[in-house]
Protein: Glutamine synthetase
Organism: Aquitalea aquatica
Amino acid sequence: MHEHLHSFIREHNIHEVECVIPDMTGVARGKIVPRDLFLAEASMKMSRAVLTITVNGEFAEFERFVGANDPDMVCVPDPSSIRLVPWAIEPVAVVIHDCEDFDGQPIGISPRAVLRRVLKLYAERGWRPVVAPEMEFYLIRQNSNPHEPLRPPTGRAGRSEVGRQSFSIDAVNDFDPFFQELSTFCQQAKLNVETLIHEVGACQMEINFAHGDAMALADQVFLFKRAVRETAYRHNIFATFMAKPMEGEPGSAMHIHQSIVDSTSGENIFSAADGTATPQFFQHIAGMQKYLPLVMPMLAPYVNSYRRLSRHAAAPINVRWGYDNRTCGIRIPPSGPAARRLENRVPGVDVNPYLAMAATLACGYLGMVQQLQASEPMSDSAYDLDFELPRSLEDAVALMQDCPELSEILGEQFVQAFCAVKEKEFETFNRGITAWEREHLQLHV
């Protein structure tokens, strides 16, 4: 057992350890283990089939991807990921694990392994990605009936939010107790949250993270979602990371700011010595333009995700790029040369953060190694152009399966297994009959 794990557990007098892995959907799966048992074992065993669970709890062809005998895998703790579980009654730690075979090789369909695979390709070229996610989410009234529309919760004034309260401080303050406790939880769990703002939608919030290493930020996003939901429960409201939770309100995104630094010098490779943009900067953009539409199941993973990606709805419909242009899928924020970066505005907040990070970095990597040519930047509205992103999960899965470059960089087995999970989810969604169908077809057709 790594010494850092031992010292953390002794220092905080930990009673139990949540040993977790992220599955394909970003759900935390694992075991709660007593402290002494955790310290006595270097790893834990768990069924590989866990990695093929759909968001509604079914298994997608696990015999094909993990074996008909349902074998175990070895889950190895990542010492850098250990943190307190701040809402636990007794001192509890959480440790994120990597999934390995019994010979020590990574399990290729594990989301963490997919991100590590992409980061290794960068490292082999002397590059290190730097990312900063921005996460939007809604606070909603508690509801027990999934057939009823979601509604904003009641704030301290005793009223639900109506109208658009973009960037309103008072609207955020309406839920001060929630945000104060969330802030405390984030500090205790070492989640590097920087800013909080009220977004466009009714009770829609946005949290920004400090920039850093892609794996570390994916871990933080993974844990942050749990922290937000847990805090909401404690204040008798819900929090949702659905991409489009309410009709007539904007969807929720996880925008990813990304740049690349030289592993040796730490200099931003997107900027030349004279401060101008390098060819690699534009190649990175070009890779995003070419491959983002082909990796969409990792950025818009559910049927609901595509409801967010509609014209004039604060979400992109294509992969145009522009300087400080929020109508584009790829925005270049104003910055000095050292902070030159691009913002991928395509991902929804419903993503698995490990897979979203892997996907966006894979696209930029392919652009640089293939030395692709970016389009001209957009200075006016990209909403007026045609759709360039797939319009449905079904179409997105087909595009991803037919892209050999992505299968090579992400792993053929992962692409097939992930798409099988998405196909299984789509199949179960299609069995349901929606309120729209009953309203408009029941008596009219």
Notes: Residues 76 and 245 are 36 Å apart (CA to CA). The chain has a mean pLDDT of 92. The two ends are 66 Å apart (CA to CA). The longest helix spans residues 214-234.
